[in-house]
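User: For a benchmark we're assembling, each entry needs the component sequences followed by a predicted structure for the full assembly. Here are entry 17's components. Please fill in the structure.
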Amino acid sequence: MSLFAVSPVELDALRLSLWVALVAVALSLPLAVAVAYVLARYRFWGHGLLNALVHLPLVLPPVVTGYLLLVAFGRKGTFGPVLEALGVQLAFTSAGAALAAAVMAFPLIVRAIRLALEAVDPRLEEAAGTLGASPIKVFSFVTLPLILPGLVAGAVVGFAKALGEFGATITFVSNIPGETQTLASAIYAVLQVPGQEAAVGRMITLSLILSFGALLLSEVLARKMVRR
Amino acid sequence: MSLDLDIHVKRGRFTLEVQITAPAGVTVVFGPSGCGKTTLLRSVAGLEPVDRGQIVIDGLDMTNRPAHRRAVGYLFQEPRLLPHLNVLGNLKFAQKMGRPVARQSFDEVIALLKLGNLLERTPFALSGGEAQRVALGRALLSAPKCLCLDEPLSALDQGLKHRILPYLERLRDLTDIPILYVTHDAAEMARLADHIVLMQAGRSVLSGPVEAILSDPAAVPYLGVRAAGTVISGQVMAPDPTTGLTVMGFDGGHLILPELNQTKGRNIRIRIPAQDIVLAREKPSGLSALNVFEGTITELHLGQGPGVMVQFKTGETLFLARVTQYSAQKMALSVGQNIFAIVKATAFDPAGIGT
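Assistant: Structure for entry 17:
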């Protein structure tokens, strides 16, 4: 057993982790932009409630979030019949793992984008309006480019969070090799069995590489955007 | 093209009620801060909701249109250039945003505002004056039917102001759209205005052509004694043979000005502040002042202060002079009387002379 002999099960876990994290970020991002925009730009009744709801997964024990997902989206959960009618199963599937990761990453992504939005000078948007830009064009050609660094930062933080998500995932979709076993749950699984130090070392190395890679990528992107 | 406004806005204890028509050319909106000038401009551009009234631009009722469909170009006190685009990007942004093609072509605007060597720069690398020129160019390229300039020079220092004013004069002479121009600065107003709207406490109190308003004694309380005076438009004639100084002909005579770099035949406009004119009952002699001309008193106006505003007419031009009440009594000034006005050539600030 060496540090480089990655087993097929471990490779599956790596592949699944990447897939789950990417899908989670891709799912969260558009909704996160919308929610961040609403939270940053509008004051309305229920503003505090929405804000608290968005941040809930950040403060709840992940096990609780996972359980709530099960209650809502499990086969016998609140939306179970609807999902079944649509032919979608989330509990104990990789799609469910992506949903759990997305829910856990969501508050972090919203926070980063909201901060970026609050730093945008609304007077620039007003000026763009007087130049003939409709609200949609103002958002696409003024607001979006200006929050791009925040958007990228949010996506990277969300990706890292999704990659490492464990508690909600294992509660909602369990730990099925090849289906829902991500890198984090695979590490947990091998830690349960004595004498698996090499496997643990390999997967921890993989985790380190992935996380470092994400951070480096965000640095490079941020620098590129500043230079523009 | 013209702009017809009937605007009613109520914000707490502040009420704005203005009915004016601004023809093509520059209409300067002048008044103390807090009188509603900016609110007026923002309502025209659709940036501020109007409680009731009507905003008609070039025959089109814009009252219920959102800002981006009003075709009102707006130059704010600060340039508001988009920081993620360079100068060229900012100018192209205005062209791309969906209105029909600008009356001024891209090349014309670049030439008018001398933006050619700024195009590749980012907004951060521009000086205040350059940035404001780019912002003006951007507003022109958005194909506006009307321009609102809200104290565009107030953030610039005196030297920079005088470098930008010629651009604004050229813009005024080149376009045929109405331009609403808010300023506190009397010299700026005298150089640029074709028309003036005087505002106080949310209402327009007096409006009319620049020559009429600035030399109207009734306007003095709103303008302030420093801003009151005469604006004369005339043509540069051959230099004075004996002195070499610039001579300007106007309806009623001619004026000797300090040496200006103005070519013969060119139309220029000058402002003589009311307090820089000296009056005499008899034709004076042996004076150092070069400009002496005869006129007839048309109006005497006692203000609250120690001064008397004397309006007199030379040819078809109305002048305004400010003398003390004591002088007015001693000279026994009265309407219809003939008087002589004395103006030093150096009373004309070369920086205040416009085209």
